[in-house]
Molybdopterin molybdenumtransferase (Streptomyces prasinus), 499 residues
Amino acid sequence: MNASEARAGRGAEAVDDAEDPDDLDVEEALALVNDAFGRTSGDPARARARDSRGGGPRPAADGRSPATRPARHDGRHALSWAEARTVAERAAHRGTGRRTAHHAPAPVPLDAALGLTLAAPLTALTDLPSFDTSAMDGWAVSGPGPWAVRKDGVLAGHTEHPPLTDGEAARIATGARVPPNTTAVLRSEHGRTDDNGRLHAVPPRASAPSRPPGAPRAGSGSTVAHGQDIRPRGQECRSGEQLLPAGALVTPAVLGLAAAAGYDTLSTLPRPRVEVLVLGDELLTAGLPHDGLIRDALGPMLPPWLRALGAEVTAVRRVRDDAQTLYRAITRSGADVVLTTGGTAAGPVDHVHPTLHRMGAELLVDGVEVRPGHPMLLARTKEDQYLVGLPGNPLAAVSGLLTLAEPLLRTLAGRPAPEPYTMPLRDAVQGHPHDTRLVPVVLRGDAALPLRYNGPAMLRGVAAADALAVVPPGGTRPGQETELLDLPWASGGIGVCFT
Ligand SMILES: Nc1nc2c(c(=O)[nH]1)N[C@H]1C(S)=C(S)[C@@H](COP(=O)(O)OP(=O)(O)OC[C@H]3O[C@@H](n4cnc5c(N)ncnc54)[C@H](O)[C@@H]3O)O[C@H]1N2
Ligand code: MOO
């Protein structure tokens, strides 16, 4: 199916494998400039060899390590997309390892633990169930029937009842503790009392669903199978048994399990604290764009996204295009991660590089072979503080967020890495000659549909997307399996952390 057929079939979601025109012109031009400075050719076979799927750092397509790879036209040594992610993931491990008070695991009440990471294994504080329990509403019975029914029934949450004697039954509710000497629970629909008040087991109606293989016979004639519909103490776990390992994400289900297993608080790792610095004199925080001024798209977008990635956003500050102001904002920040937007390129008011240089910061990533977003950077500004510099173009900022901030924050938050996965891209996607492309896609059935409006300055594509496709240099054919990066709102597991 070609792009125009796809468009015809998918209406507004239609795909266009061509990039947005202003994007393409710049990218192609940059690629030519890069070639002139000795980078790899656009040979698709070599480009595919650099396909970043699979994760770990790898040599560039030209076989040279990043250190020996020639600098780009701007003098920087860009890393491949996979290398950059690995560096970001490992940067936090390379810290001193000393945990400040803020980083130490802390007990957190259950209702504040959603989205955090377990600092210690979740170990059952009790047997579950903690007593033998009725799995059904009906009668606790002792021995074969018929049974004499006791006057008092047994409800959930009540103290222990006197033992049953052989041939005795007591009305019981689901979840109630079965009286001692109970041999089975007879479901209410499987029993009937006669005129003398004696309880008889009645076989399930012929229309009843058939018994699963191996399941106990649900009452036949005058008796029921031993143990039927009793949940024995410790069936789910014994006290002291490990239910989840350290590092597990606290999801709603984990909160439920922890409560059931006796926890009031959970030992969790604190969220890394992120301060967002939005750079740009041209940005408005309200109203319509006018007189060359535009709305700040990143101030509203980044905080909830960062929270979804496991961070606590301590502040969002707007910083004038002034080197001294930026220097002060960064050096005064006590956050674990300072995240800047804009100012990463080499324009007259792009102060991020000179400021990092002035601070003596260590540049860990200085440019990435990814489109959009190639000027993104990662620096260590001081012991246990990092700076992620996102490019100002909004989709380029998203690219930097997922390429550098996500692995860094994931490691700092102690979260497990998401399992990489691929899906076929329904349509061909044009690749960059040398760089990985991140392209918004929607998931439809067993395929991912690349979206239009994927230019660096556009959010229209990603706002409608479920994921970003990692398009290797050289592009993808229709149906080609391609790595996808889930967007937090599309992956239920992380979505819970927007709260
Ligand atoms: N000579 C070169 N110029 C540029 C290059 C290059 O390689 N050589 N790269 C281009 C690419 S690619 C990108 S991406 C941008 C990165 O620029 P900066 O990080 O310095 O960002 P700014 O110049 O500050 O802004 C770029 C663009 O984005 C708009 N912007 C900035 N912040 C926001 C915001 N919060 N909300 C909405 N829009 C924002 C800003 O107005 C600019 O239009 O550099 C290229 N140039
Ligand atoms: O292509 Mo830039 O890298 O617009 O993000």
The pocket of LQZAQKY5 (ligand 1) is lined by residues 30, 278, 280, 282-283, 294, 296-298, 341-347, 350, 372, 374-375, 391-394, 396, 456 (CB under 6 Å). Residues 1-68, 95-101, 214-221, 493-499 have pLDDT under 50 and may be disordered.
